[in-house]
């Protein structure tokens, strides 16, 4: 009897708080929907066919030239001098105890306090390199396909398929958009909330590169590898509904080396050293997109990107090639500094370290007097 009172007391105290929190979430969701989800109804501008042709020609030219081994890495090393690490392993391997720097920062910049969870997870994952056929290739050309609207109508699909490695980000779909984005996915790089729901977006040989942010992310991967269903309550720890099952085997999973996230943030974007903050990282967190570009410089000999470039001065234009979010959503978010990222990507492209195939960051194939 006596045990009951505190419980009832607690429930009575917290009930209004819980209701308020649920109410606020609801209002926030409505706000997101009304602010950002209106661009699909606007008239979609046709892409200038001339621009599309020039883009396609440009990609063909990039692919016809001879591939230069270690080109991207050497360029990055020159641009960022001793800050760019020439020999970081892109994916975490079992030998983690030999890498103390791995545990210096909290996720996603490191695995501080996650040593045991990481070890448990790694026991389930047998591989940590590229698949053998790619690994042994003398010179690899990669393209990071961003999710930007700029891909719409450029019809780069068939040329993008000719890269050795195609890296896609988060939930970006292929099905229904193959003319513009191709149908090859060598790597999908995402956190659990970004994993596509559709089984058709996964390929038997594709790699799933996980970016880990929190404890629940470890549990999610473990569940996916074991083909188990996460308990329903665990959904609370994700900021968005996560896929319940994905057709990815243990052999296909890789864990992104968080040192690459740290390198992207601190050494390349020159953000301050990561500090644990209760409310997350205010604008000091690199996007998956720019992180994937840095990953690609470690993984591949030559690196291109496509579908990058957010024009923040056009808040009511569509953001992605596949949904109806508006550019305003990028202004509304509080984690990433898109301006800084654009400046750095421009630098990489102008210096020739990476190529911009769709011209959204810096256009190499646009005529000086042309549209764009
Ligand atoms: C991509 O599409 C081409 C035809 O357009 C097809 O031959 C090929 O099998 C497809 N590849 C994948 C991985 O679906
Ligand atoms: C995963 O589990 C489901 C049942 O939940 C089963 O139908 C399916 O065959 C399993 N897949 C594998 C690869 O074991
Ligand atoms: C983003 O970074 C730029 C410097 O590159 C700075 O001027 C700007 O204030 C930052 N924006 C935000 C919202 O933090």
TrEMBL record:
One of its GO terms (molecular function) is lactosylceramide alpha-2,3-sialyltransferase activity. This is Lactosylceramide alpha-2,3-sialyltransferase. Belongs to the glycosyltransferase 29 family. It is a single-pass type II membrane protein. One of its GO terms (cellular component) is Golgi membrane. It comes from Python bivittatus. The chain crosses the membrane at residues 12-30. It is found in: Golgi apparatus membrane. It holds the Pfam family Glyco_transf_29. PANTHER family: LACTOSYLCERAMIDE ALPHA-2,3-SIALYLTRANSFERASE, SIALYLTRANSFERASE. Disulfide bonds join 142-300. The lineage of its organism: Eukaryota, Metazoa, Chordata, Craniata, Vertebrata. Coiled coil: none annotated.
């Amino acid at each position: 009897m006596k045990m009951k009172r505190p419980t009832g007391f607690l429930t009575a105290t917290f009930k209004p708080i819980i209701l308020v929190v649920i109410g606020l979430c609801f209002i926030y969701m409505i706000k997101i929907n009304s602010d950002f989800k209106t661009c699909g109804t606007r008239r979609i501008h046709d892409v200038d066919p001339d621009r599309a042709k020039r883009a396609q020609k440009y990609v063909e030219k990039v692919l016809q030239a001879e591939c230069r081994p270690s080109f991207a890495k050497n360029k990055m090393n020159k641009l960022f001098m001793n800050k760019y690490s020439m020999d970081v392993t892109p994916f975490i391997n079992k030998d983690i105890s030999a890498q103390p720097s791995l545990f210096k920062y909290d996720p996603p910049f490191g695995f501080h306090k996650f040593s045991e969870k990481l070890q448990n997870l790694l026991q389930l994952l047998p591989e940590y390199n590229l698949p053998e056929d790619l690994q042994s290739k003398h010179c690899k050309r990669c393209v990071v396909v961003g999710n930007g609207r700029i891909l719409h109508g450029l019809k780069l699909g068939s040329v993008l398929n000719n890269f050795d490695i195609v890296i896609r980000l988060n939930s970006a779909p292929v099905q229904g958009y193959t003319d513009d984005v191709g149908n090859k996915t060598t790597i999908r790089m995402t956190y659990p909330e970004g994993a596509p729901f559709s089984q058709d977006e996964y390929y038997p040989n594709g790699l799933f590169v996980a970016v880990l942010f929190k404890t629940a992310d470890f549990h999610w991967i473990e569940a996916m590898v074991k083909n188990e269903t996460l308990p329903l309550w665990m959904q609370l720890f994700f900021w968005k509904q996560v896929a319940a099952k994905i057709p990815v085997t243990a052999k296909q999973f890789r864990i992104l080396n968080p040192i690459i996230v740290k390198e992207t943030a601190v050494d390349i974007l020159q953000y301050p050293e990561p500090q644990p903050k209760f409310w997350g990282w205010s604008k000091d967190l690199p996007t998956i997109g720019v992180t994937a570009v840095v990953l690609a410089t470690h993984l591949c000999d030559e690196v291109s990107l496509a579908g990058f470039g957010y024009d923040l001065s056009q808040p009511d234009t569509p953001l992605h090639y596949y949904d109806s979010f508006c550019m305003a959503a990028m202004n509304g978010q509080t984690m990433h500094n898109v301006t800084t990222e654009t400046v750095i990507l421009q630098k990489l492209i102008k210096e020739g370290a990476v190529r911009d195939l769709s011209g959204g960051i810096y256009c190499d194939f646009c005529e000086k007097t042309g549209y764009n």
